[in-house]
Amino acid sequence: IMSSPFISKNLMNSLRMINISEILPEARYIFVRRDPLFNAQSLLLSRKKAHGTANQWWSTKPVGYEEATQSSPEYQVVWQVLEIEKTVTRFLDKYSPQYIEISYETLCHNPQNTIENIREKFHVEIKQDVSFDNLASRNSITISQNRWEKITYW
């Protein structure tokens, strides 16, 4: 049993949340929701970086991903983002009143306020002053216009 706070930022855990809640019933969740199109773009770029091609799956594999692999990479990443969001949302709505949803964009624009909202929601004490400058948002189009149009189509 842990006696100190534990924080995990691991997208793979989004598919393990029921198991986590059984092991750690006191767990609290922070759901950072990002514009799905930029999330999908990030996955395409990560595929290219990890595998040298956008055609090979990368990261979390939601139930049913095998069928999604029959479609274009652009469809796959949009499907992947939306399925993970659905899975997380279903879990939080059904099993955990101890969560807060924040937007990625708000977190980047005003991290101090976001941290304060989390602190208030979970009634946690911050033992030292924490100061954040605004964080740089990665929400900008960095892929070809053709590929971006394919993502926005789905």
Word description of this protein:
With 154 residues, this protein is mainly alpha-helical. Helix content is 50%, strand content 6%. It is built from seven helices and two strands. The chain has a two-stranded parallel ribbon.
Helix content: 40-55%
Mean pLDDT: 91
Sheet with the most strands: spatial strand order: 1-2
Number-wise, the strands total 2
Q: Shape from CA axes?
A: globular
How many H/I helical runs?
Answer: 7
The main pleated sheet reads as:
2 strands, parallel
- Unreliable residue stretches: none
Class by SSE composition: mainly alpha
Distance between the termini: 45 Å
Rg estimate, integer Å: 17 Å
What is the helix/strand order?
HEHHHEHHH
How much β-strand is present in the residues?
Answer: 5-15%
